[in-house]
Amino acid sequence: MPMSRREECASCSADQHLCKMCTWWSARIGCDEEQVEDVSDTERANFCDYFKLLTSNAASVDIQKSQGAKAQLAEHFGDPVEQEQVSDPQLSAQQLAEKKLRDMLQNI
């Protein structure tokens, strides 16, 4: 889907063409695209040519990669492999993490 650099949310007017809305973005390491120039403010709209809008499908792919990496580590260290259950495939990675946190806090 082509997206203008100046694209805004219809309900809250927040910028949409920003690093955290891109499939290349990782919360731990930042941008995972090797050829991209450094962006000074990842919270605001930018001119990145590699921007690709994050979709719920891309978020589920990230979760699968994460689960695979965790399984490999567990196997390497001889630990039991824990399989995370994705309750709603429509949730983004951030929404899923927030849901897990809320569930943990309710059990305290």
How would you characterize this protein structure?
- The chain is mainly alpha-helical and 108 residues long.
- It is 33% helix and 4% strand.
- The chain is built from 2 helices and 2 strands; from the N terminus they run E-E-H-H.
- It has helices at residues 56-77, 93-106; strands at 25-26, 30-31.
- A two-stranded antiparallel sheet has the order 1-2.
List the helices and strands and how they pair.
Layout: E1 25-26, E2 30-31, H1 56-77, H2 93-106
Antiparallel strand pairs: 1-2
Helix proportion: 25-40%
Strand order of the largest sheet: 1-2
Average pLDDT score: 77
Measured on Cα atoms, how large is the radius of gyration? Answer: 17 Å
Number of strands: 2
Distance between the ends: 43 Å
> Which segments are poorly predicted (pLDDT under 50) over 5 or more consecutive residues?
none
Structural class: mainly alpha
Main beta-sheet annotation: 2 strands, antiparallel
Order of helical and strand elements: EEHH
Q: Which term fits the overall shape?
A: globular
Kindly estimate the percentage of residues that lie in beta strands according to DSSP. under 5%
Count of DSSP-assigned helices: 2
Give a quick precis of the structure.
The chain is mostly helical and 108 residues long. Helix content is 33%, strand content 4%.
Index terms:
108 residues, mainly alpha, two-stranded antiparallel sheet, 2 helices, 2 strands
